[in-house]
Amino acid sequence: MEKPQEGIDSGELYLHVNTLAGAFNLSDELLAWKFDRDYLERIAYSERNFDGKARDISPLPYSRDLQDLVRQINSALATPEFGNGIAVRVSWMHGSEDLPTPAQVERAGGYLIVKCYVHPWCFNRARERGIRAGPYMEMRIDQILRLMEAMGGEKVWWFIGDEPFSSYHWHGYLTRRGAKPFRSRQEAFESYREFVFVDQNGREALEHLSGREEYRAELEEAGQLFFHLYAKRRNLDLANLNIACGSTCPMDAHYQFEWNFSRMFILERVFLGGIQVGVAFVRGAAKQYGRYWGMYQELWDGKHYGWANYTRFDRDLNRVGGLTPGMLLRARLVVFFSGVNVNFIKAAHQTHFAPGKDGRLQFTPVAEDHKRLADFCLRRHPVRGKTHTPVALLLEHLHGWAPVWAEEDKVWGTIPFEEGDYMISNFFDEAFPGRPAAWWQLPFPPYHPFGRRFFSLSKRHRTEEYRRRLRQGYDHRPYEHRCLTSSRWGDCFDVLLENYSLEVLRQYPMVVMLGRVRLEGDLAVKLAEYVKGGGNLLVNVRQLGAGDLRDLLGVELTGEEGTGTRSHCLTCGRTYEEPEYRYSKVRLSPTAEAKAINEHGDVLIAEHPFGRGRVVVTTPHYLQAYDGDEPLEEGQRRFTAFLEIAKDLIGHWVDRFSPVKVEGPPVEYIVNRAEDDIIVVLVNNEATEWKGRIATGKLEEPSRWTVMEWWEDVPVPSRVEGDGLQVDVDMPPWGFKVIAICRDRQLGK
After folding, report:
1. Checking phi first, is residue 643 left (phi over 0); if not, alpha (psi -120 to 50) or beta?
2. Which pLDDT score is estimated for 511?
3. Residue 376 half-sphere exposure, CB side, CA atoms within 13 Å?
4. Which string of DSSP letters, residue by residue, matches 276-289?
5. Has domain 15-385 been given CATH number 3.20.20?
């Protein structure tokens, strides 16, 4: 395994960008308003057929009007009103168009992201220019590199793709070809690595044409433009180029950084497991390797809305499809305060514009929200502080856990769960209750509010039915709550893999080992050094490896096991009824202390000082309930739920390191620190009003601190309680508050 290299300060860069339009990806509403149906069908044919027949849109009617519409949209988006930069996709550009000039980029705010990789549509873009795909793509790449050099610094980024490097697409690629299940996690890992470096799903375009002799030379040229082949042939200095890679699967971030070919990882997200789990993986990977990270908000919501796709509006600004404006706003605000370096929305050209009654385009409610968000993030309150993430979740290097596969109790897409894998799933189920596992679960629960008949309709009729319901006032916000959920302990976790550096681990006061990772060998040595220096380690008896660990752990396994159905916390005095669980019996050293026991008086949690830190050993197997009815391979059994005593334990430790405590019904919250000041972001993802309280820890002269709500820039009443402050907060359904608790000044103004 390659070791992390010295990285960058990821807090210094923030890009707030929107994707510009191309001639072939405008909203149906805009096109239908401007052009006739026959013209639209011919455009669709041009995009979806790669047989060389649809070479150019210029002979088609209205082509000049179409390009004028694109320019009108892009000129509105490419302004500081919407952000500090823009993003373009080469596969959507006209073949004859050039990239924005440095002057155009500066007018748009100063930053540019260019998404460019071998894609089926690139063949059509090459036809428009009258050349083959290979020379066309090489021309585009040369344009990107020249622009990157001309603007210098970190102004221009080459985004080499998300889907071509996604393990979800890798798995689909193998499934379509009837590949056999993997025999080991190492074999799966090597297969994914080969996919990233050799195959890539740009081959979909090549395979479409591979049976035609006339395209043989063109295929060979285009194949040489797969990123890694191209980088090797051109001898690109990847360490000093602004290369951004990405994926639709959050676990890929660690591996792509490990392979050291990009300075930034961009996660395509809203579906596929929820935003918060994705943030934990990708932010953790960026910290582990000292890189940047971004969130690319994919708004396609296909099947559940009858293929109504992106959030769109008609000329009366009635929404006719997609997620609600409030959902999109909350999502971008959450990732901003989560510390993201690049925050952009894929389909701004779709979501931000609607046909106007006077023959002009008009801004949609989404556009108005996102103009305000850009002003908030870039001008009103650009000092967001550093996201408070006290807990590192430590996974094995070959874990293979991803939200979509976990729904089927599998890792790496095909390998059945072992006991430790359930621990990862059950932890995230409790950390973010109600999170989605897969895109087909969104935004509706297992039942569909329109009834089963909805899915029996054709694609066109589903779209018509869905739009009819919207016109009648149907509110589907209750079914969007799984994109963002409440956070039991706050959005405060980062995922690290076992090949971390000690310098990285020392950023976290607490490490929780999850899954099959084993405390043995080099890992045991590093973690002992971490604890000795003042860190705190939570490890389960099933994660103990070979070797004598008694000095570190303060416990010794007796070799006996038992079962229990109750637990009692000796810290807070609470007693819990539990589903049946198995546990290993231990003998405590004189320096270890029991923190929880069961009905038999056996130790469930023990705490032991070591150096300046502490080790917490838990004895229930993987902290989960035991389900004796579902045997797995090799005699293993499924662990079905996180124990109440486990939730209690993590809550105590998170509270110990948090500068505030959020009290009240379940809610999503993020805590940021900027020097002494505290920013608490509260997000209500439910259909009911939220009423609760923020209580700070000890503050120096609490009466001299001020409290503001930043989104509205209004003061918030507070009261001194002991050595801290208490702030009462009310939020409407689907609302949010940004509460800034500042010392003698208003931070960020």
Report:
1. beta
2. 98
3. 20
4. HHHHHHHHHHHHHH
5. yes
User: Which pairing describes strands 603-610 and 613-618: parallel, antiparallel, or unpaired?
Assistant: antiparallel
Could you say which residues of the chain have pLDDT below 50?
Answer: 1-10, 48-55, 201, 211, 301-308, 436-452, 454-455, 746-749
Q: In the chain, what are the domain boundaries?
A: 15-385, 405-435+486-656, 659-743
Where helices occur in 16-166 by DSSP H, the ranges are 28-34, 37-48, 63-77, 102-107, 120-129, 133-151
DSSP-derived secondary structure letter, 519: B
Contact criterion met (CB below 8 Å) for 244 and 237: no
Domain 405-435+486-656 indexed as CATH 3.40.50.880: yes
pLDDT value of position 481: 59
d(CA 192, CA 186): 10
CB 561 within 8 A of CB 531: no
pLDDT of residue 449: 47
Whether cis (ω within 30° of 0) applies to the bond prior to 443 is: yes
Question: 2.70.98.50, 3.40.640.10, 2.60.40.1180, 3.40.50.2300: which CATH number matches 659-743?
Answer: 2.60.40.1180
Distances (CA, A) of 111 to 19, 107, 422: 12, 10, 42
- Residues 686 and 688: their CA atoms lie apart, in Å, by 6
